[in-house]
Amino acid sequence: MSRQTAIDTALDYFDTGGFEAELARRVAVRSESQKPEGLPELHRYLDEEMIPAFEEMGFACRKYENPQAGCGPALLATRFESSEYPTVLGYGHGDVIRGLEDQWTKGAGPWVTQRDGDRLYGRGTADNKAQHTINMAAHRAVLETRGRLGFNAKFLVETGEEAGSRGLREIIESHIDDFAADVFIASDGPRAAPDRPTIFLGARGALNFDLVVDLREGGHHSGNWGGLLANPGVVLAHALATIIGRKGEIRIKEWLPPAITKSVRDALKDVTIAGGAAGPEIDLAWGEPGLSPAEQVYAWNSFDVLAFTTGNPQRPVNAIPPRARAHCQIRYVAGTDHANLLSSLRRHLDKEGFPEVVVEPPPPANAGDFIATRTDPEHPWACWVRDSMARSIGGAPAVIPSLGGSICNDLFTDLLGLPAIWVPHSYAACSQHAPNEHILMSVSRSAIEIMSGLYWDLGDGDTPGAAARQA
Asked: Which of 4, 8, 374, 442 has CB 3.0 to 4.6 Å from 202, enough for a Cys bridge?
């Protein structure tokens, strides 16, 4: 009975095809949370895949219906072994983004996994079905080796993350004792680089909104009216130019975060962002001047225009369009005055002479609102997880203060009061949320080794707060 035996057990499951087979079944469930017709599949994912797998490992399962109409359920699997053990809350989401079946050019489409060298294609492989499948398999490997975990495990699987985790806060608030734990350790998102195991200690917040210029009813002939009628597309373009500079720098002072702290700067000193062979080349001159690429993504705020329409781009005509719309997004780190982001935008637009630019909330499916969170890199649990990973990989993992993307991390840090540590198993060029989503099998194999070692170490007794629990 040893740590290495548990790791070898997990690697044997991976190398003999168990991981691919299990993941293929889960990818085949079309659990699209952004489509109303996907709701039965969200239930099926929990009922047919998650509950049997957890019950086989001795977990008690409780399924919670979502209080928000049309939103997917959540599952909490619990294995309690001793009041002297730490309780570790895990997380995964079984829902996926829209399949976009007609846009895939690699693999066999979204609902069938297919290998191509190191890549395994399929919707949900990277986000998030492979990631929680890896962590569940690592739990199983420890149980098979030790006969027990040596810690108390709770594992939350929601089915609405891709739709903004609507209703999850209400579920947790209504059953707060069910989710009580000492630490939150879970997996989602990408590593800083494919070959650099990574820890994320929080997530940037996200706020989506639309900017709209609606000047009149209908289009008017550009020959007869050109030079006489204000063009809403031009007006909106100039308004956007007051918000963000030519090289991506934010121009609204109220949108900027506090100065980057020393602990965050130190954590990011040796972090290099890399998307792998298929990743885009970083535009080093883009963003806030004076910041490294890692600081831009993990310690600063960004503003982006995700879509911009005026007229009919597919079939343009010789007419001045009546309206223009830009779908925009702010990604922001902890410490930003997020409650006043839109009010400061309104003041800015008025000051710059754009009262006709209206700020509107986006459709619910594109809302994507999340609160920024961060656990300090020097927190005892963050240091403990870092040391466990270093033992497995023979070197230091990258420690990232905040995930560049956004997730419902505030439910764990703010609502439940837990230190939150994320160990991601994907990479930045995985095409999540796009056609041709995939994972790298090499990264997945590395991840199952890391997580088996980490869960083994959790049961060894030398964890933060052990003396107090045993008193």
From this structure: 374
- Per-residue DSSP letters for 207-243? EEEEEEEE-SSS-EEHHHHTTTS--HHHHHHHHHHHH
């003041």: which residue's tokens?
347
For 309-334, write each residue's pLDDT tens digit: 999 999 999 999 999 999 999 999 99
pLDDT reading at 279 higher than 80: no
Across 33-42, 68-77, 256-265, 440-449, least confident range: 256-265
Supply the pLDDT for residue 186: 97
Residues in a beta bridge with 456:
none
Tokens of 427: 């990479």
Cα-based distances in Å from 159 to 316, 373, 425: 40, 21, 19
Where does the pLDDT of residue 369 fall: very low under 50, low under 70, confident under 90, or very high at 90 and above? confident
Q: What b/e readout covers 157-191, taking b as 16+ CB neighbours within 10 angstroms?
A: bbbbbbbbbbbbeebbeeeeeebebbbbbbbbbbb
Q: Is the pLDDT of residue 1 over 90?
A: no
Task: Answer yes or no: are the C-beta atoms of 332 and 360 closer than 8 Å.
Answer: no
Give the Cα separation of 412 and 421 in Å (integer).
10
Q: How far is CA 437 from CA 99, 430, 433, in A?
A: 10, 6, 7
Q: If you write DSSP's letter for every residue of 20-64 in order, what string do you get? A: HHHHHHHHTS--BTTSGGGHHHHHHIIIIIIHHHHHHTT-EEEEE
Give the dihedral sign, CA 79/80/81/85: positive
Instruction: Please report the domains of the chain, with CATH numbers, ordered by start residue.
Output: 3-203+372-470 (3.40.630.10), 205-257+301-366 (3.30.70.360)
Nearest to 455 by CA among 82, 75, 183, 77: 183
Q: What is the pLDDT of residues 44-61, one digit of tens each?
A: 999 999 999 999 999 999
Q: What average pLDDT is seen over the chain?
A: 94
Summarize pLDDT for 348-358 with one digit per residue, the tens.
999 999 999 99
CA distance 297 to 307: 21
